[in-house]
């Protein structure tokens, strides 16, 4: 077997042995066990923080997230540094209303989109 032979199994041209790590799609369903549901939420919350950190570093942007859970009495903000929040908010407020709405997504339209994907 020639390891330098190009393989076209994926969209891009790869040389050598292809190692793929494929994650199966997360099944969207209600988790009945309360402890398992809390644990799943905690893991996804940490994953969201990691992804936000990666995107902000890779794209050289400042990003901020507010998370709310019915399991915890207070909102969780990440990163906790308030200067990041002020910078993101000021950048948003300096844009015109047309620019602000360009990439916005309303909650109800998001939910409808997700429901249609599940069906």
TrEMBL record:
<keyword id="KW-0805">Transcription regulation</keyword>
<dbReference type="InterPro" id="IPR002100">
    <property type="entry name" value="TF_MADSbox"/>
</dbReference>
<keyword id="KW-0804">Transcription</keyword>
<dbReference type="GO" id="GO:0046983">
    <property type="term" value="F:protein dimerization activity"/>
</dbReference>
<dbReference type="InterPro" id="IPR033897">
    <property type="entry name" value="SRF-like_MADS-box"/>
</dbReference>
<dbReference type="GO" id="GO:0005634">
    <property type="term" value="C:nucleus"/>
</dbReference>
<dbReference type="GO" id="GO:0000981">
    <property type="term" value="F:DNA-binding transcription factor activity, RNA polymerase II-specific"/>
</dbReference>
<feature type="domain" description="MADS-box">
    <location>
        <begin position="21"/>
        <end position="70"/>
    </location>
</feature>
<keyword id="KW-0238">DNA-binding</keyword>
<keyword id="KW-0539">Nucleus</keyword>
<protein>
    <submittedName>
        <fullName>Transcription factor MADS-type1 family</fullName>
    </submittedName>
</protein>
<dbReference type="Pfam" id="PF00319">
    <property type="entry name" value="SRF-TF"/>
</dbReference>
<dbReference type="InterPro" id="IPR036879">
    <property type="entry name" value="TF_MADSbox_sf"/>
</dbReference>
<dbReference type="GO" id="GO:0045944">
    <property type="term" value="P:positive regulation of transcription by RNA polymerase II"/>
</dbReference>
<dbReference type="GO" id="GO:0000987">
    <property type="term" value="F:cis-regulatory region sequence-specific DNA binding"/>
</dbReference>
